[in-house]
Write a structure and sequence with these properties.
about 325 residues, eight-stranded parallel barrel, 12 helices
Amino acid sequence: MALVTTKEMFKRAYKEHFSVGAFNVDNLETLQAVIEAAAETKSPVIIAITENVIKYFGIAYLRHAIEAAVETYGVEVALHLDHGKSIEICKYCVDNGFTSVMIDASAYDFEENIRITKEVVEYAHAKGVVVESELGAIAGIEEDIDVNDKYGRFTHPDDVVEFVTRTGIDSLAIAIGTAHGAYKFKPGQKPQLRFDILDEIEEKLPGFPLVLHGSSSVPQSRLALVNQYGGQMKEAIGIPESMLTEASHHSVCKINVGTDLRVTFTGEIRKFFFTQPQEYEIRKYTTPARTAVKEMVKEKMEKVFESAGHAAK
């Protein structure tokens, strides 16, 4: 099976009310973990790659590693550029085997966002690659999130039809209360997705696939493991998994997860070095870390996104 685009994945996800997990991988071990989880659960999966990971991994190493994984396990995989900040990086990924790219021009005003996005769409579509874009401001690690504001910097439903129509994008990342990083909310703050805004967007864009970024749940047991064995991570609160499942029953066809993989991987490595300080063999500490990430991703696929068993036949 070759790498695929997200078009057919999202059609099934929308029709059958599940979401496809887009997992940010940082190294070979996390890539293997995600692919193995997809194979064992028979789930479609999106491998999400940032520009920094491309620089770290190397584009050729990255592409061939993912192709090898697909060949080995026969899973349905889309290779996706996450948060491409320029037209140039999007074109670079299109030319180097990615099947999906995200152009994130949300920092610009509405018209400039459209102009930049449209240029990427025209280039990518000519080569059979799909495009995601973002409308609204998905918060970063240190930004406040005011879920009491009706729209504020969330995605405005009145803008979505014009944006999708004029750009020709294939999916839209919306801001309804998720946030990037581990520290999404202040201690004591209650996470809340704005399903009222999601409902309004769905009414404007019936049948169109939506995307949630910054959707790690930051499992407290995994965070505790990091700190139990020498880590100093602050209190972190993620998006409740029940809210993500509810979103997947709407028109959210893709949910992005990155922090959960990193916290899980790091916790297992810290535990290994603390409990077995005499060891130095690399495989001995990367193997339990990889296994833990695989099990966490499987749980997401089976219980949260409900994508298990939905791979293309």
